[in-house]
Amino acid sequence: MKRFSILLGVVAVIALLTVTGAFAEEAKKGPGGRGGTMGEITKIDGKNITIKSAREGAPDVTAAATDDTVVSILKPATLAELKVGDQVRITQGDKRAYGEITEIKGKDITVKGRSGDPTTITVEADAVIAVSVKAKFEDLKVGQRVMASVTEGKITRISIQPPAK
Questions:
Q1: Does residue 112 have a pLDDT over 50?
Q2: Contact 111, 90 (CB under 8 A)
Q3: Which of 55, 115, 128, 137 qualifies as a cystine partner to 91, CB 3.0-4.6 A?
């Protein structure tokens, strides 16, 4: 019985070290779970951007843009303006679709998200559609709402979000 208790203790310590290592590795990717953070730009100092997280209690994030940072802006769009290949965010009631448009059939829009899984949404008059268009670092301003992907202190992508309503 004593050996079993010791073995159980060793297994518990190994499990704790494994979980702690996984959390440390995840933290290197950046804030926001998958390396993403959403919030408001509070400071731009050269290529360093500070973002006040929209998530209550989350710390501010300061990260550096690089020459490879992809900057975009979400602009309001209509169904008629959409085309296959567009990066979009479509919100309609409790349905949402984010990603690249892979197919358009009338009002039915199929979007491939980050996971690779397709989502089809029938766009009605009350849908809110935003399309992502290329922007420049110089388009970023203090006070803008943004979504940023951060990896090891570097901003890989940053998207300027439409103003809150």
A1: yes
A2: yes
A3: 128
